């Protein structure tokens, strides 16, 4: 009986104490993520610009990834670790096209995210978002956590003020309001704390003109982050948007006369066709509305001319026009250009 | 057995420790499992309805809709019949696109045409030439519960799977009975898409809505705020055949106003009955109290609005009204349109009473005549300045307010009998009423402003003032005539400056003398940044006006919003939003910027336009005047020769001053 009792006690202690010990020693996934995040304080604070953001530690020796923003305007910013320790952060490098900047603080043995071990998620998956939202967390208080689902994984088509955002890669769109002041540079994780993406700046969706809640997948950032860390990174060329678009062809080169382009969004209706032209022979007609070029929707005369401008000689152009209530497909070839 | 007890205790303790730890671990595991199962169920619900969700693209159209930058991106629709009918939010076509395209989930694209719109529920039916589509299944009407999962879906993004936001059903029968409310994120990203339950049945179609707004874009400002609306799918299927038959559906109108604006604590007593409206045809009279709508008891105005808010034009309604203690039952059909309201006009300006003059004391009976309009019914009846009108159709009249109200219940063309005193002798005359004149007499005499009694220290400040409105931390300036007399009621001119220029010096120069002569206080709130006004500064302007109304003696009939150029758009927004506060609107160098609400007897609105003959906007302004006249609003206007886009010069402004002075005409 005595022996049995001792055995029972042993079993009970093993079974009962293990979870208890785990609860004391191990952090929950949420707490674990929070220890790997930092609060960043830098420039801003006037004219509606915020002077704070978030970063996430990507190496034990103090490299921190964050969003490239005006907060980083000074060379040195203040970085507050999860335990409340305040350090100077130096900007090591940045790739504005990816909205990514890398900082360095002098520290060792920091808890960190392994950029090569990021997870991925699909529409409808539950996610957590972490960040220095409205800088409500002070000192050693952990950053804020929000929950939501992935609304979509899609290409970013966004603008900041009147300017298109250069990054048009894939992003996670979230159904929670994750892109609040200070959240930029924070992270999106799975429910069990696996790193998914970096929360971006506050931007508007260029197509719907609404604020967009998005995060850039870590896969998009990892290579550049490694290169910046190792000092081998070279910035990408000037963004394409800054170079003048080519104007190789215009509608008239195909024999298409468009209606006068008087509005910002004048629909690309055909006014008339030059007799004998390729377009006339392919049975395009006046009053047809040009809708697609090579599968891309054309919303105005300007967009049509821009698309035609990019063509090269002998390129085949697939056009779809709306005639009445039906869609008609037509194929044209970019004609030879006369020598100037 | 002395040892047993402690041994048992240890065993019991250890066992319970084991149970607790196992239970908490199990709970955590169960919690995790449940979350995984829920997530799977949510995704499956979206997958079930995905074949019925289409992407809609539009080409061409307006840049802005109601001051909101119109989106150019794709929107969403829900298939409602296999032969190509698709229902979506009318918001998606508010920019009036020249072409609509639909992409099916299998990638096929079709040109679409608009078939009909449901203007009550803000939905539009479109049609493509396709067969064998998958109509969305509707969740049974009675199955929808507050608190159940609600998944908002859209096809705005270029992804094979619909975009998704997860929330719950927050409320039913919202916006006067029309909509399901959800906390899932609803915005232009998924307007027109379905809100589905966890079984993949469609609860409703997502639309922007607001309790007050009637435009396609009303409620859009609430996007992603945790308050979103969906029109119940079962309600949509109920009217689908009518929409398919190309019949536009409209809100059902009854044609009455209530005696108070308080929706929640006063009985629904009828005030005005619209001429030729369903209410008038059914014999409803001013003073009736609505006690029942379609069998449901109504003791408050809000209950009547709830009972009628979800009704279409053409719907049959059974009403019971209480008239002098007797219950009368009436049946009628709601109308889509009411004849524009138009007040009748007698043709006089009333004498303005001193505010301190106690009505019950020495005030002589009736309404004193200060001025008689030439060619008016009053002139034809021989009325003269100094006469006192004591009765209108046998009803005694003791104030200008009473007389104006009596006139508002008649129509131009009707005959009435006037009783008036001349030199103390009663006389009667029959008049044929006319429509209210927009003419401003050149010889309009000033209403005498009595000199103030001796000034004491408590008097409000006069002259040019500069203040900060503490409640809103916003600046304003004002001009109060130096001989301001609190015993006289002043007009209040609220100046909404254009972007980047408060025009303070110029306005003072133009208006100072008119303010003194015509008894006008000029109030000029300043935009937070001198750059431009933002729509949320409407609250500040309203507060500034209310503060002046409280501190100075102001005639509520003559509070005028005056905007120039870009300031005119905000002035219109404010006037339409705060109809009780602003009975008059004067636009300088600017046309209508937003669709005005209908003319109403309980919220009369008088208009004045002043602009340059050489102003490039001249044509638009003239079109605005015509549109307002068609709505039977009284509209005064003048085009200033030789003037372009500048603020009008003194002679034209002097005429605006006379218009303000005549706003209380009857």
From TrEMBL, chain A:
SUPFAM superfamilies: PDZ domain-like, Trypsin-like serine proteases
Signal peptide: 1-23
UniProt keyword Protease, yes or no: yes
Source taxon at top rank: Bacteria
GO terms under biological process: proteolysis
Alphabetized InterPro entries for the sequence: Chloro_Bact_Ser_Proteases (IPR051201), PDZ (IPR001478), PDZ_sf (IPR036034), Peptidase_S1_PA (IPR009003)
SMART domains attached to this UniProt entry: PDZ (SM00228)
Keyword entries, A-Z: Hydrolase, Protease, Signal
UniProt domain PDZ: residue ranges: 254-325
A GO molecular-function annotation: peptidase activity
Listed name of the protein: Serine protease HtrA
Gene: htrA_2
UniProtKB/TrEMBL annotation, chain B:
Record GO terms (molecular function): serine-type endopeptidase activity
One Pfam family of this chain: Trypsin_2
GO biological process: protein quality control for misfolded or incompletely synthesized proteins
Keywords: Hydrolase, Protease, Signal
Entry GO CC: periplasmic space
Record's signal peptide: 1-26
PROSITE patterns: PDZ (PS50106)
Protein family per UniProt: Belongs to the peptidase S1C family.
Protein name stated in the entry: Periplasmic serine endoprotease DegP
Gene from which this protein is expressed: degP_2
């Amino acid at each position: 009986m005595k022996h049995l009792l001792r055995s029972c006690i042993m079993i009970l202690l093993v079974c009962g104490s293990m979870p208890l010990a785990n609860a004391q020693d191990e952090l929950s996934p949420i707490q674990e993520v929070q220890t790997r995040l930092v609060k960043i304080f830098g420039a801003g604070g006037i004219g509606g610009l915020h002077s704070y953001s978030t970063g996430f530690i990507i190496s034990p020796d103090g490299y921190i990834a964050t969003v490239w923003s005006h907060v980083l305007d000074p060379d040195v910013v203040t970085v507050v670790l999860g335990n409340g320790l305040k350090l100077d952060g130096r900007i090591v490098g940045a790739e504005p096209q990816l909205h990514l900047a890398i900082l360095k603080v002098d520290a060792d043995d920091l808890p960190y995210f392994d950029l090569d071990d990021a997870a991925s998620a699909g529409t409808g998956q539950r996610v957590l978002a972490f960040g220095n939202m409205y800088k409500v967390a002070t000192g050693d208080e952990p950053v804020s956590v929000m929950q939501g689902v992935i609304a979509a994984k899609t290409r970013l088509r966004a603008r900041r003020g009147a300017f298109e955002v250069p990054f048009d890669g894939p992003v996670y769109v979230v159904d929670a309001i994750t892109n609040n002041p200070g959240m930029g540079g924070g992270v999106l994780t799975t429910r069990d704390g696996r790193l998914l993406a970096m929360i971006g700046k506050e931007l508007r969706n260029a197509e719907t003109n609404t604020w967009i809640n998005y995060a850039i997948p870590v896969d998009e950032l990892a290579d550049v982050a490694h290169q910046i860390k190792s000092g081998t990174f070279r910035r990408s060329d000037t963004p394409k948007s800054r170079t003048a678009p080519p104007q190789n062809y215009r509608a008239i080169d195909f024999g298409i006369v468009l209606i006068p382009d008087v509005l910002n969004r004048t629909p690309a209706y055909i006014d008339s066709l030059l007799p004998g032209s390729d377009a006339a022979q392919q049975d395009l007609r006046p009053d047809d509305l040009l809708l697609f070029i090579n599968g891309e929707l054309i919303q105005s005369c300007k967009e049509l001319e821009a698309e035609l401008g990019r063509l090269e000689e002998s390129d085949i152009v697939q056009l779809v026009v709306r005639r009445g209530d039906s869609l008609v497909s037509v194929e044209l070839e970019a004609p030879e250009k006369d020598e100037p | 057995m002395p040892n047993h007890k402690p041994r048992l205790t240890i065993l019991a303790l250890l066992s319970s420790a084991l149970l607790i730890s196992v239970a908490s671990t199990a709970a955590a595991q169960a919690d995790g499992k449940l979350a995984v199962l829920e997530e799977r169920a949510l995704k499956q619900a979206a997958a079930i309805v995905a074949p019925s969700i289409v992407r809609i693209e539009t080409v061409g159209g307006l840049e802005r809709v109601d001051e909101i930058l119109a989106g150019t991106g794709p929107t969403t629709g829900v298939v409602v019949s296999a032969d190509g009918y698709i229902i979506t939010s009318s918001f998606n076509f508010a920019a009036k696109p020249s072409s609509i395209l639909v992409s099916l989930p299998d990638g096929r694209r079709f040109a679409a045409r608009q078939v009909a719109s449901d203007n009550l529920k803000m939905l539009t039916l479109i049609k493509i030439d396709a067969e064998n589509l998958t109509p969305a299944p509707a969740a049974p009407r009675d199955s929808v519960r507050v608190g159940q999962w609600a998944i908002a879906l859209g096809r705005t993004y270029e992804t094979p799977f619909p975009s998704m936001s997860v929330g719950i059903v927050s409320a039913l029968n919202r916006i006067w009975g029309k909509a399901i409310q959800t906390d899932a994120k609803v915005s232009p990203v998924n307007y027109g898409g379905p809100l589905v339950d966890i079984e993949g049945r469609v609860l409703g179609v997502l639309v922007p809505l607001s309790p007050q707004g009637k435009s396609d874009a009303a409620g859009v400002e609430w996007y992603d705020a945790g308050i979103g609306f969906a029109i119940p799918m079962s309600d949509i299927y109920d009217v689908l055949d009518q929409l398919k038959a190309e019949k536009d559906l409209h809100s059902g109108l009854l044609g009455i106003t209530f005696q108070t604006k308080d929706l929640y604590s006063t009985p629904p007593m009828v005030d005005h009955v619209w001429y030729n409206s369903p209410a008038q045809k059914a014999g409803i009279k001013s003073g009736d109290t609505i006690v029942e709508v379609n069998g449901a008891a109504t003791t408050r105005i809000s209950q009547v609005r709830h009972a009628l808010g979800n009704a279409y034009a053409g719907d049959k309604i059974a009403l019971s009204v209480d008239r002098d203690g007797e219950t009368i039952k009436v049946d009628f059909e709601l109308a889509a349109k009411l004849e524009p309201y138009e007040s009748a006009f007698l043709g006089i300006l009333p004498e303005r009473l001193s505010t301190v003059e106690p009505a019950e004391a020495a005030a002589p009976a009736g309404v004193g005549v200060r001025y008689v309009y030439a060619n008016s019914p009053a002139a034809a009846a021989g009325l003269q300045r100094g006469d006192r009108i004591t009765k209108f159709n046998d009803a005694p009249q003791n104030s200008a307010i009473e007389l104006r109200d009596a006139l508002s219940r008649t129509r131009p063309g009707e005959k009435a009998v006037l009783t008036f005193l001349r030199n103390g002798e009663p006389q009667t005359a029959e008049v044929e009423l006319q429509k209210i004149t927009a003419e401003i007499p050149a010889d309009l005499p000033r209403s005498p402003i009595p000199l103030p009694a001796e000034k004491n220290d408590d008097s409000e400040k006069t002259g040019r003032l500069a203040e900060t409105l503490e409640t809103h931390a916003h600046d304003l300036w004002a001009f109060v005539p130096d001989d301001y007399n609190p015993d006289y009621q002043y007009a209040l001119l609220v100046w909404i400056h254009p972007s980047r220029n408060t025009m303070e010096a110029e306005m003072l120069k133009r208006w100072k003398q008119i303010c003194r002569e015509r008894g006008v206080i000029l109030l000029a709130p300043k935009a937070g940044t001198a750059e431009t006004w933002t729509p949320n500064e409407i609250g500040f302007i309203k507060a500034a006006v209310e503060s002046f109304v409280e501190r100075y003696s102001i005639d509520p009939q003559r509070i005028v919003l005056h905007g120039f150029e870009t300031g005119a758009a905000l002035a219109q927004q404010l006037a339409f939003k705060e109809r009780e506060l602003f009975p008059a609107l004067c636009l300088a160098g600017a046309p209508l910027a937003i669709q005005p609400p209908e003319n109403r007897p309980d919220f009369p609105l008088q208009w004045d336009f002043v602009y340059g003959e050489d102003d490039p906007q001249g044509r638009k302004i003239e079109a605005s005047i015509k549109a307002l006249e068609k709505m039977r609003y009284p509209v005064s206007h003048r085009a200033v020769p030789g003037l372009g886009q500048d603020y009008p010069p003194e002679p034209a402004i002097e005429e605006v001053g006379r218009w303000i002075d005549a706003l209380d005409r009857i």
